[in-house]
């Protein structure tokens, strides 16, 4: 099915004030978690021990997800998607949105990790991981990029919107679970990454999706 050009359709989407409220709400939830994550140590230990090296197949899948969801994989994904959007669909706003999401996720994650300086779990890591633990960079990148791409795909192929949301949610959940299976993050690291990425994406969506867009003319 041929996609609609980026300028040729309108859908009523979440209005800017609601997006800002959603961004502020998830940012507040993330801040509260960052202030009190130590009180959830027992939950972190319980879920971490249950997920760690859950099965051979889970470990192998988690290692694969870790590779494609790392820094190099994310950069390649952004470059490939930006080239396609810019050259074939002339969706410059989509390119700006995707690049801003990727850079914003990386910057926020780096700042918070260096601020909180939380050590990674003490059990043996099943994949190489450097730096601090909180929040999870892989979880942040997965949610940010998958849902940013889902918004873009929804704009060009709105008839398949449920497919894009389902794929984004599946990628996000699998990436977060993989970090627990590999023993490189706590559960609260992953949740903090999800909340922070959600806040960022709600705010940046204002760049890409205005409140009202033109529908294709009959």
Provide a descriptive summary of the structure in words.
With 218 residues, the chain is mainly alpha-helical. It has helices at 16-36, 41-51, 56-68, 71-87, 92-116, 137-156, 161-181, 187-208.
Task: Name some characteristics of this structure.
218 residues, mainly alpha, disordered C terminus
Average pLDDT, rounded to a whole number, is: 87
Distance between the termini: 17 Å
* Estimated radius of gyration: 18 Å
Q: How much helicity do the residues have?
A: 55-70%
Give the SSE string: HHHHHHHH
Percent of residues in beta strands? under 5%
The major sheet is characterized as: none
Structure annotation, total helices: 8
**Which spans have pLDDT < 50 for at least 5 consecutive residues?**
4-13, 211-218
Total strands: 0
Quick structural summary:
The chain is mostly helical and 218 residues long. It has helices spanning 16-36, 41-51, 56-68, 71-87, 92-116, 137-156, 161-181, 187-208. The relative contact order is 0.22.
How does the SSE layout of this entry go?
Blueprint: H1 16-36, H2 41-51, H3 56-68, H4 71-87, H5 92-116, H6 137-156, H7 161-181, H8 187-208
């Amino acid at each position: 099915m041929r996609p609609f050009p980026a300028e040729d359709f309108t859908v009523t989407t979440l209005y800017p004030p609601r997006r800002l409220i959603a961004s502020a709400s998830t940012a507040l939830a993330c801040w509260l978690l960052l202030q009190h994550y130590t009180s959830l140590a027992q939950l972190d230990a319980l879920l971490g021990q249950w997920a760690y090296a859950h099965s051979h197949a889970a470990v192998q899948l988690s290692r694969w997800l870790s590779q494609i969801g790392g820094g190099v994989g994310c950069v390649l994904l952004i470059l490939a998607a930006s080239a396609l959007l810019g050259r074939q669909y002339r969706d410059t706003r989509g390119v700006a949105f995707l690049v801003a999401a990727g850079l914003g996720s990386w910057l926020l994650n780096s700042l918070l990790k260096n601020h909180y300086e939380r050590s990674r779990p003490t059990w043996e890591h099943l994949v190489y991981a450097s730096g601090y633990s909180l929040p999870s960079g892989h979880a942040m990148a997965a949610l940010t990029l998958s849902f940013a791409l889902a918004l873009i795909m929804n704009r060009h192929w709105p008839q398949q919107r449920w497919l894009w949301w389902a794929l984004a949610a599946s990628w996000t959940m699998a990436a977060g679970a993989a970090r627990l299976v590999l023993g490189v993050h706590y559960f609260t690291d992953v949740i903090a990454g999800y909340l922070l990425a959600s806040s960022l994406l709600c705010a940046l969506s204002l760049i890409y999706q205005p409140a009202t867009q033109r529908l294709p003319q009959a």
